[in-house]
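Researcher: Go.
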Amino acid sequence: MSRPRCTNNGFTLIELLVVIAIIAILAAILFPVFARAKESARLTKCMAHIKQAGQAVLAYAGDWNDTLPSCAVPGYSLPPAGQCVGGDTPHVASQISNLPPKRLRPTYPYCGRSVYMWQCPSEPKLKQRSTDTESYKDFDFWGNSYPMNTEFAWDNPTWLYTLSGTYGNSMSDLKLGRNLSTIRRPTRLIMLGERGIHQYFVKGVKAAGCPDFRNHDQSACRVPVCYVDCHVRYVLITGNHVVKVNGVNQNTYGLFDEGWAFAESGWYPGHPEWGAPGSF
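Model: Structure:
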């Protein structure tokens, strides 16, 4: 009598290893794609937040004779600057006495029921100052992920940022913010954005850039910004370099580049070469 033949329908070890290898390869290919897609969604949300914040700033200006917020709140110590235009009361206990609560920030009445339009969903934790022992997100530390362009605090020129990255005199020197009618290029002048807009002044541009300010793109200092006319773009912030304007080489001093500017020429007494030229 013949015995029935046994059949084995399972995987061999080689087949199992091949399947595992294929799955690993597919995961290695797809995981970065999923991560980029997730970050792209966060960037879209962030840009929507920035547009809302810009609209709040313009709503403030509409009620104050077209005068923009002055980037700081009198009665509170430096350097709150653009961080205190809008946002929340700081979540970090050590900052609550130094930074104004949300109800005292100029745009608070124009933010509806939420101040979370001032929060970037992608910002990392970092040490805000060299003396810090802990790392915090901007929104936790300042109550704001989107500082305003400090070049708008204009009535006393010493308040403006200097090229060494220092502030002006004291809070008592702070005057009114810039009037919208004094801005020649509202479609190119950055009103507010992520903290990368200050990278040149705060830390300088190094060969590798400033990783502390990279929320969405770890390879370069690309920043979502809102312009004075309230349109939003994702731009590359650069430091001082030479560009040709009307056939003449000109230093940008980190104040303007293709498609964007922080300041316009004529804003700095004694320095007509600083800022974007009128033909920009």
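Model: DSSP finds three helices and seven strands in the chain.
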